[in-house]
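Submission checklist for the structure archive. All mandatory fields must be present; incomplete records are returned to the submitter.

[x] Identifier: Sterile alpha motif domain-containing protein 3
[x] Organism: Danio rerio
[x] Residue count: 555
[x] Sequence attached
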Amino acid sequence: MSSPVNLRIVFGGDEDARKLALKTGIPKSVDELVLEIMTVFGVKQKFRLQYKDKDFGNEYMNLTSTTQIEDRDTLKVIFLSTDDFNSCMHETAPDVPSCSSILVPLHKTTCSSDSPNTRHASPCEFDSVSEVYLSEDSFSSSTETVLIKSPESRTSSWPQVFVIPRFSCSAEIQLQRADTEFNKSEMLLIPPPKLRSDILEGMAEEIFRYAAYPTDSQLDQAAEALINVHPCLREKGTRTGHEGWKHYLKIKMANFRSKLSKIGHPEITVNSLRNKREGRGKAASNIKKPKKAEVNFLPCLPRGETADSMEKERIALLTEVKKKNNEPVIKEKMHLTFSYRRQELVEDLPMVSDLQSRWPALFTVNEINAEFMRITTVPLLSKFFAQLDKYTADLQKVFSSKGGASGQKISRIMAVADKCGDIHIKRDCVIQSLCVYFNEDMTTVVKEFEDSNPKEAEARISETTLGLFVIRKEGAGAEEEPSDVGVVIEGVTLLENLKSISFGLVILFGLIYALNLSYPQGLKFTFEFFQKVLMNLDGSKLSPKVQALKIKMFQ
């Protein structure tokens, strides 16, 4: 165990300085240190940390690593305004923790009822969402970032570090006293019913900010965080010390969903018995909930809007799509109608041909990327290709060790990539090799045709349930770019003239999210790799096949 450390924490001016005692030493990351300061001092507002840099005459500099500080150092807390926070968020890569990686709730009740940073929020109220709109070449160029106020949407996926909210004033006082007593004598608190109820209510509201149907591991993480922040709540006689709290949270979330169902929250009411289809009238039948780490699976309509007003916006959007150079207006209306579109998709399960006629603006590269980000809060194109390029060397290392017929096939595929300098061809070869590694047949989803026989191509494309079509010149090899790549769902060609197979597969991946579809069974492991390894969406829960590949990649 590391030696105890004391830090001087300055809030604002030097007149407000406090001592932070860290019994287990300096945390490994800045995020963990931020969480410790939030917990100990009850800080709720977003902030960053600065330290005194000896190289610059002890001037304050932004803290980027805990290796920059030592025992008895002084840290300064810099509270962030909304603009500062958004700026910080957009200057940071998606996978790198930053001052924005811990989202601090502003809607929990505190002892000061008139505090400007506290408010009561309905289950449908959240902060703004960052959206990135990209052109087809955007993954290799600068991106345009647009912030749009979206109170009906969640702003982030489940956090790496679950932050315990502040509870009611009465509950906080009782917990503070019990924690103090625990630190002195290790006496555990047996919470009375009212205190337990207050704790569970606050925890349920915080959990719902990220997930209406939390997984078992997420509930376990929340319960563990609760006893870490309030050690007096640890339980005797259990293996982890929080198993009972996990059970209470599971029951509380079920009751919390029942309350939201009564007030008409769409993410909950969609699974009520009266909304079940004929023949599926059981409570546990065909539950519609996030299955691919969707953050905004079925959000509320925007405040002040109704289904009728949203339908008028949809009809107006049909006119806007026909106008030239009208992309900003289309983006705005597509964002406004997002929740209405999701409710239609999830509740009514329309045919793709009907969706194409009702929402033609959705079926463009830019809007598929934007819709994916509305659903997951993660940009599609830029992150996918950045991660694929980043892991290409690791994948090639694993592919080279593959033996047997699969290994020989991968060697032939990667030989094309080594011979050709085109980045698109190289990405195509890496994804094709990935399919072979998983013993999956890429041709079940990607159908290739020669341009000399267009009638055969049209006939087979119309029979395709979900996949890509690739048109090549007669006699062209794999090292040559295809003449055309398109996406087909339910026999309907949704996009054409995509530049490569890898680009087409990413757009298909985005459409699966946008249209609430399942992954193609023939490439289920490949698409799982896309989601959980490349995009890091629910990346902690992998199938054995994908987990084995990931372990080999990082050995």
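[x] Structure attached
Curator remark: Residues 243-262 form the longest helix (20 residues). The longest strand covers residues 5-11.
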